[in-house]
Amino acid sequence: MKTTLAQKIISRAAGREQVTPGEVVTVSVDLAMIHDSGGPRRVEPILRELGVGLFDAQKVVLISDHFVPGDTEEGAQILALTRDWAKKRQVAFYDAQGICHVVLPERGHLQSGMLVVGGDSHSTTGGAFGAYIFGIGATEMAGVLATGEIWLTVPGTILIEWRNRLCEGVTAKDIMLALCGRLGMDGGRYQAVEYTGEAIAALSMQERMTLSNMAAELGAQAGLIAPDETTASYISKAGGDAGNWQELKTDADAPLEAHHVFDAAELEPQAAAPHSPANAAPVREAAGVPVDVAYIGACTGAKYEDLKYAASILEGRSVRPSVELLVAPASRLDQERAELEGIMAVFEAAGAKILPNACGICAGYGTHRLGEDVTCISSTARNFKGRMGAPSSNVWLASPYTTAASAITGEITDPREFLSDNRSAS
Amino acid sequence: MSGRIFLFGDNVDTDQLAPGQYMRGGVEALAAHCLEGLRPEFAASVQPGDIIVAGRNFGVGSSREQAAEALKHLGIRAVVASSFAGIFYRNAINLGLPVFVCEDISALKDGSHVELDLEAGRLTLTDSAVTIALEPLPDNLKVLLADGGLIPHLKKRFAREPSQ
Lengths: 426, 164
What we know:
heterodimer; A: alpha/beta; Aconitase, domain 3; 2 domains; 5-stranded parallel beta sheet; 34% helix; globular; B: alpha/beta; Aconitase, domain 4; 7 strands
């Protein structure tokens, strides 16, 4: 039988020869990732009530990111509880090292073909490594931690193919905003989305992670990319085991839920208007909208590659004085690499303020939030009303390139203007 | 048991249901601000037994289960929507909050009184006696919900399998 990548991973995890889309199966979980918000503070009382311990402490990774840096009394207490729990339960723990979706693969925990659950909706990010990983709530996570199992409905696969190559200045983030605009925030129908095609194969792992990350914004359960040499090389360098990745792919002629084909060469930089990622359109249609804050942050938009894109625009230029540029690198390791390569120095020279390696304003859990009537352009994934600050604030979503270009001009700006200036100057 | 309908549109997101700035607190604090961005009076006016009716993709966004927990805390008896975001749907069942898909919600008006028959999966409008069939839950979720959610369900399972 011809099967999809999702079916291959799920049938293995279910201990079955094969599985069919639509059937409900119970799978063994290879790895469970939790963070400070939905993690210890919520799962421990449930484990206690059930009177059980962890199914396998070796298969649990805890990462603090939502309440970092602990700028409220309650947030600091939650972080303290998180640290105590890590010690008591003897699990791998990364404290204030960055956002969980970026830290998990960069520390070598993810492997192609794994069945993984994460206590966060953007857990789909790990699908870029050819793992079936999806987000769940804390009670369900407690159930996984107690039993090592979870049920799922075997998904159909929505194949999203991008032919040809992206143009300079156009990124994975632009792909995702365009898809949100085209397919809607429920276009993924809680099935598996799988990205394929020449444009995807040409992307770095961190760009692929952006695609899988925002499978959440398409309403998919998972956002998969079949592993290749790029994947295996990343996993090996991170200290993981690349394993037998060659077999992990959707067979030609496997039955699909849908197959969408797009031309990457025709894609322009995108911006999504408040208050939905689905309000996406080419940046030029929003050009000239004044911005007060430019935020380069989150698992979606502040990884090393994202920082590099933004710095390529900001190098030798300054942020407009009326604009506050905030940069919250997605992980400590990404920030360290950016420091070594002079990228952080570019941000500082341009007038940016550097924030901790954490979810920050994107989650809006701390004291640092957007004020009344503030307009922000942001490299993050979600611009729901009131998420990043006051309900009267307006958040536009765009790529790190576009966010950086808009910080320089003080209004929403197509970054390709700066990139062509860069070319003529060099 | 009869309740009033609180009607919402499409894509009601988790930042409306459980606003981030209150996530560091407990469910009482969150529930007091539940849906205030869409209907400022919601938390104060909702009565135990009331029902939420909404359009497509209810609960889109975060995996924070406080989105469902806040509704339950306020006494919302069930959410009926044209469709649900996947994670919210699972969270609601796991917390014992009934959720029903009903593709066509056009007959359900804000403020109307309805009777909900959870067993039969049926809404009856009190004024007109018009009944609306809700899509039945998958069998595995019927069991979960009948047990009162995932925690009581697991307790039952562990009692049966003492080796766990």
